[in-house]
Here is the input.
Amino acid sequence: MPIIVDKEKKKKQLIAVAADVFTKKGFHATRMQEIATSAGVAKGTLYEYFATKEDLFLAIYDSWISAYEQSLNKRFSEAEDALERTDAIRISAVEFYTSHINHAPLLLEFWAHALRSEDDRFLQRVRILQTELVGYGNTITKEMVNSEFFNSVDAQSFTLLESGISDGIFLVWAMSGGTFSLSKAYEFRQSLIGLGLLSNDARMLIGNKLQQKLSEGFLDEQNS
Here is the structure.
């Protein structure tokens, strides 16, 4: 009886192995043979799935981001109001970054590669996610402003800036070796921004709660 190979499952296994090898050695220093050896396959088999090293590199990023998008979209669609939609974005980001803490160098290399590579597929993939996140942010911000929960703010400008802050928090967290709670750090950011935008009525409603979160911070006593 012939052996039936699940090609999609095999592809996922190769991507997982390649991600670990790329993380340890970096994209440019890694050879396809090293990945094939680590995966226990012939180099020719690896090329059956990925025509070039850049194809494999992109496949890793795309697989991670696609899973993140799927989780985010599900949470966002199930949320009942703007506050829950805000939580959906925050929880999904924390979940994604926490699950890839060991691959932090590779995530940063993806971003750098997207900016310097002549292969524009990388930058296009990064921008697809950015566009999606900015779209969600615009929806939430406009809803908050229209309901008079937030003071008037340019939603596009605010959302783009907020996206950069989120990535920056991940970078600080990764560089610290994950010594503080990423979830609490994101909640701290959310409270800080919220207090700055809250209308007077909303401030009376939840201002004290947000101020308490700011007073508590997000660092454990041993790290503060």
